[in-house]
Amino acid sequence: MASQLEQWDERADARLARWVYLGTLCATVGWLGAILLPAWLMDQGRSTPAHLLYEGFAVACHQIPGRSYHLLGYPLAVCSRCTGIYVGSLLGLLVYPLVRPLASRRPPARRWLLLAAVPVLIDFGGEWIGLWLNTFPSRTLTGGVAGMGGIFFLFPAIVEAIDDWRYPPPLPPQTPPSVLGCTPGRGIEDA
């Protein structure tokens, strides 16, 4: 039988995990909306808030207009690969409860994350060394695979962090530290 600490590592509070899932799902949809918002704001003539959003997303993406999808004649806030990553994350979240328990704190084996990243590496590397030019579909699809795979590692980490914050794990039993080489309960003269 597993110890209390080992069981703690395996599962989070199921009710809390459901709320974390819904919150993560809402945040992901909101993030995707924020990617579309600058193009819509530009179309509405609200360039200042649009530029603020573009600048905010510039921290995470190169935003090359020729590599970005456009909406209403304006580029999205991120490139096609990043768009694929975020859409893939949403799709991965939608599939997640069908594949894994929401309360699981353990991610899948790392090889799955590496496998999800391989298409991006091949697509990027092939263009970088001059074998081919990648395209909107290849960047979007490879990003989508990476995003879908990545969420299976990110979501358990979010669940674990919030679960540990809400319900701190029990501390393992410890012996009190000795002072000046003395064991607890014994004086210096007994040592």
Percent range for β-strand residues: under 5%
pLDDT < 50 runs, ≥5 residues: 1-5
What does the overall shape look like?
globular
Question: Helix count?
Answer: 6
Structural class: mainly alpha
What's the β-strand tally?
Answer: 2
Strand order of the largest sheet: 1-2
SSE ordering = HHHEEHHH
What helical percentage do the residues reach? 55-70%
Distance between the termini: 39 Å
Give the rounded overall mean pLDDT.
89
Taking the sheet with the most strands, its summary is: 2 strands, antiparallel
> Cα-atom Rg, whole angstroms?
24 Å
Notes on the protein architecture:
With 191 residues, this protein is mainly α. The protein contains 6 helices and 2 strands; from the N terminus they run H-H-H-E-E-H-H-H. The chain has helices at residues 4-10, 14-43, 47-58, 80-99, 110-128, 136-166, and strands at residues 70-71, 74-75. Strands 1-2 form a two-stranded antiparallel ribbon. Residues 1-5 have low confidence and may be disordered.
Chart the SSEs and their pairings:
Blueprint: H1 4-10, H2 14-43, H3 47-58, E1 70-71, E2 74-75, H4 80-99, H5 110-128, H6 136-166
Antiparallel strand pairs: 1-2
Short description:
This protein is an all-alpha fold. It has helices at 4-10, 14-43, 47-58, 80-99, 110-128, 136-166, and strands at residues 70-71, 74-75. The protein has a two-stranded antiparallel ribbon with strand order 1-2.
